[in-house]
Amino acid sequence: MQIARQVPAGDGLVIELGGGTGTVTQALLESGVTPERLIVVERAPAFVHHLRNRFPDVPVVHGDAARLAHFLPPDVRIDAIVSCLPLRSLPRHETAVIVEQWHQVLGENGVVIQFTYDIRPLRYIAAYHPDFVICSSRIVWANAPPARVVTTCKRATVASDRPVGAGHQHSRSAVEIKSRSQS
Ligand SMILES: C[S@@+](CC[C@H](N)C(=O)[O-])C[C@H]1O[C@@H](n2cnc3c(N)ncnc32)[C@H](O)[C@@H]1O
């Protein structure tokens, strides 16, 4: 799956937002992202239940992406945020809060990978924060239905404004404690 190929190699965490039925979770695992490196955040209790059954080794946080920083201990490095959130249909202020969270938790060289079945050009992640810039945007025609995958990076110029947790190794146990406490 295209979305999984965009995830940078490394040992920083990969956060999937809006895990739903687990199609993207499965693709991430199949592409080599280990369960220890992955955290899935999902707001709907039924999907949380389903995801925990389907992927017993993957921490699944029952929570809202708008509070992402709250779920993570301060010493984690986030390499990638994989979002399947329906951002285009959310109220603007909700999207603004979510994008601000991404900026807060993402490591310096981290990326946000947004997946959407709405294949119109998508510029709003970058439009919501001056430190984000679109690195790639492509339609995956082989997907059924076709989908757009947009990768957004942090501008290199923000080195002085170091995000929370950047440059540290993650603590698996701390992540587990946080993830359990959310539901
Ligand atoms: C397009 S669907 C998920 C697609 C998913 N990749 C799948 O395979 O099913 C979007 C998901 O985002 C979840 N969601 C929507 N808003 C959310 C939010 N603010 N925080 C966390 N999850 C959210 C929904 O409950 C839904 O499961």
Automatic annotation (TrEMBL):
One of its GO terms (molecular function) is rRNA (adenine-N6,N6-)-dimethyltransferase activity. It comes from the Bacteria. SMART domains: rADc. The keyword S-adenosyl-L-methionine applies. Residues 161-183 are annotated as: Disordered. Residues 173-183 have a biased composition (Basic and acidic residues). InterPro entries: Methyltransf_25, rRNA_Ade_methylase_Trfase_N, SAM-dependent_MTases_sf. Keywords: Methyltransferase, S-adenosyl-L-methionine, Transferase. Residues 3-130 form the Ribosomal RNA adenine methylase transferase N-terminal domain. Gene3D superfamilies: Vaccinia Virus protein VP39. It holds the Pfam family Methyltransf_25. This is Methyltransferase.
